[in-house]
Every structure is written in C-alpha cells, then in structure tokens.
Amino acid sequence: MTISVRLPSQLRALVGGAGEVIVEATTVREAIHAVESRHPGLAARVLDEAGELRRFVNVFVADEDVRFLEGLDTPLTSGAVVSLVPAVAGG
C-alpha cells in the first residue's frame, strides 16, 4: 500500500530535504524501514538498538499516537499518513 511518511525539519536532511516520503508499507515499522532503505540513517534516529521507538520520537497515524494503537505494528491503509514528530520539552 502506498503511504506518506511526513518528517520534521530535524530529519529532512536525511532524506534530501523532503518533508514527505512516499513508500509502500502495511505497518508503521515497514514504513520506517522503507524510508531507511532509500535514505540510510533515518531508522537510527527514530528507533533504539532494540528496534523500538525512541522515547523522544512520537509517531502518529491519522492524528492517533501509535503508542495508544499497536505501536510500530499499527496497520496502515492505502493513502495513510505517518507523521514522525520529535517530542517537545520545556519548562
């Protein structure tokens, strides 16, 4: 299925400056790995050594946080939009 992965400005240098990458994937995990296969270095920024999401990265599918869905195994439908969003801290 064709889906879009939206990237924050902090990660765009890894994908040639693009704000969005179109890939074929059926889960969020597949989407991240599909972007990684075309643009090496992305997965290391969003996934930890165990292959799980880093604490400071939020991932949304259709405005829903995947941590409250099925995590990286959240299924995707054709045309889905996966947004990688860095956590914001302040105080």
Short précis:
With 91 residues, the chain is α+β, with helices and mostly antiparallel strands.
- Let me know the average pLDDT: 93
What summary fits the major beta sheet? 5 strands, mixed
Estimated radius of gyration: 12 Å
Structural class: alpha+beta
Helix content: 10-25%
Write down how many β-strands occur, each being a DSSP E stretch of 2 or more residues: 5
- How many alpha or pi helices? 3
Helix and strand run? EHEHHEEE
Shape call: globular
- Enumerate the spans where pLDDT stays under 50 for 5 or more consecutive residues: none
- What share of residues are in beta strands? 25-35%
Structure description:
By secondary structure, the chain is of the alpha+beta class. The protein is 22% helix and 25% strand. It has helices at residues 9-12, 28-38, 42-46, and strands at 2-6, 20-24, 57-61, 64-65, 81-86. A five-stranded mixed beta sheet has the order 2-1-5-3-4, covered by helices on one side. Strand 3 and strand 4 (64-65) form a beta hairpin.
Characteristic terms for this protein:
91 residues, alpha+beta, five-stranded mixed β-sheet, 3 helices, 5 strands, 22% helix
Please describe the topology of this protein:
Blueprint: E1 2-6, H1 9-12, E2 20-24, H2 28-38, H3 42-46, E3 57-61, E4 64-65, E5 81-86
Parallel strand pairs: 1-5
Antiparallel strand pairs: 1-2, 3-4, 3-5
